[in-house]
Each structure stands twice: as structure tokens, then as C-alpha cells.
Design brief:
87% helix
């Protein structure tokens, strides 16, 4: 009976360890998604800077179209990023310092 109890306890400890490892791995995956989203936004901002420098007034509405595309890209990606950041904070709490600096 004692050996069965010890085996059962060991089995439960193993399950707990597996669960902790799974949760930790998921947390790091979510952090990586946030990093990727932050990098995407930074890339869009850099591309926007270049495009703004290249914009020249034209007779047609090319400039307005480019500005609209830039605005749409930034808005869409920022909304996705903000949603994933809020989801991460709700599930895991605060973000890591390096990710906070990047944001």
C-alpha cells in the first residue's frame, strides 16, 4: 500500500512538472509572438519613414493612396499587436524588460 501511494505521488509530481514545462513553453512562445509583432510594427515605421521621404506631390492622388496604405498597415498591425499584448498580460502578467523596452 505504501509503495502504491509513493508511486501515485511520483506520478502526480511528474504530471505537475510536465504541466509547468508546458505552461512555461507557452509563455515563451507568446513572448516571441509579441516580439515578432513589435518587430513588424518597427519595420512598418521604418518603411513609412522611407516612403514619406520619397513622396513627391503628384498631379494624381498617388500620394494620398500611399499615405492611406501606410495608415492602414500601421492601424491593422498596431491593433493586432495591442490585442496580443493585452491577451499576454491577462494570461501571464507583466512582460519581460527587454520586450517592454522594444515596445
Amino acid at each position: 500500500s505504501f509503495i502504491k501511494d509513493v508511486d501515485l505521488e511520483t506520478s502526480h509530481l511528474s504530471e505537475v512538472n510536465d504541466l509547468i514545462l508546458t505552461l512555461t513553453e507557452r509563455k515563451f512562445q507568446e513572448q516571441e509572438k509579441l516580439r515578432q509583432n513589435a518587430c513588424t510594427i518597427l519595420s512598418i515605421i521604418q518603411r513609412t519613414k522611407v516612403q514619406l521621404i520619397e513622396l513627391r506631390p503628384t498631379i494624381n492622388d498617388e500620394t494620398d493612396q500611399k499615405l492611406k496604405k501606410i495608415d492602414d498597415d500601421l492601424t491593422t498591425n498596431y491593433e493586432l499587436f495591442e490585442q496580443s499584448l493585452n491577451n499576454y498580460k491577462r494570461v501571464y502578467g507583466n512582460i519581460s524588460d527587454d520586450l517592454d523596452k522594444m515596445i
